Amino acid sequence: MIKAGQLSKGMFILVKDAPYEVTEREFVYPGKGTAFIRAKLKNMKTGQVLKQVIKSQEQVEDIEVTELECQFLYSDGETLHFMNSETYEQFGISAAVLDDKAKYLKEGDTYELVMWEDEPLNIKLPFKMKYAVTQAEDAVKGDTVTGATKTVEVETGLTVKVPLFIKEGDNIIVNTETGEYVERTNN
């Protein structure tokens, strides 16, 4: 148990016997009265989002999570399937829970799964990832206003706004937290 004032983004807590991730946290000190936390919590089993106001001195139950390296096998549309590389045990995570993180996953790559009581709750993505551009429109000559961009599609189906010089077959690096283009890479 911890005080609500100690909550931070990315922590996992137990609410009504269900694991929730703190996705947003705002500390509010009204000047008169007790300080409180305005938190946005995501149910890690259903994907449901809950907004809650908690007094900063109230107790909340934090849960102990572990990280496990697993290989991403495939997606069947509703569930993403992973395999523990050491024990070959397979896990499934609902695509609804992961939201848009699923578009960043490449089959065969290894990722960190966040586990609680031998059940996968979430996935940790690297801050930046490299992708091959599979679809890109040609830039129109004369269309060179400062900072002009176009939308391309990468190998996982993710769409990214990139500078006009990026073409099909290029490799780009994407920030997985914002979904923004970072740079073009040669290899």
How would you characterize the overall build of this protein?
It is a single chain. The protein has one helix at residues 95-98, and strands at residues 2-3, 12-15, 18-28, 36-43, 49-55, 59-62, 66-75, 79-84, 90-94, 110-116, 119-124, 128-136, 149-154, 159-163, 171-175, 181-185. The chain is mostly beta strands and 187 residues long. The protein folds into 3 domains: 2-62, SH3 type barrels (Roll); 66-124, OB fold (Dihydrolipoamide Acetyltransferase, E2P); 128-185, Nucleic acid-binding proteins (OB fold (Dihydrolipoamide Acetyltransferase, E2P), Beta Barrel). The protein has a 6-stranded antiparallel sheet, with no helix packed on it. Strand 3 (18-28) and strand 4 (36-43) form a beta hairpin. The longest helix has 4 residues, at 95-98. The protein is flat, with a radius of gyration of 20 Å. The mean pLDDT is 83.
Please render the helix and strand layout as text.
Elements (H helix, E strand, L loop, with lengths): L1 E2 L8 E4 L2 E11 L7 E8 L5 E7 L3 E4 L3 E10 L3 E6 L5 E5 H4 L11 E7 L2 E6 L3 E9 L12 E6 L4 E5 L7 E5 L5 E5 L2
Question: Which features characterize this protein?
Answer:
187 residues; mainly beta; SH3 type barrels; OB fold (Dihydrolipoamide Acetyltransferase, E2P); 3 domains; five-stranded antiparallel beta sheet
Number of helices: 1
Q: Please, what is the average pLDDT?
A: 83
Please report the distance between the alpha carbons of the first and last residues: 48 Å
What share of residues are in beta strands?
Answer: over 45%
Named CATH topology of the largest domain = SH3 type barrels
- Tell me the radius of gyration: 20 Å
Order of helices and strands: EEEEEEEEEHEEEEEEE
Given helix and strand content, the structural type is mainly beta
Total beta-strand segments: 16
Instruction: Give the spatial strand order of the biggest sheet.
Output: 1-6-2-3-4-5
Could you name the CATH class of the largest domain?
A: Mainly Beta
Question: Share of helix among residues?
Answer: under 10%
Give the uncertain stretches in residue-range form: none
How many domains?
A: 3
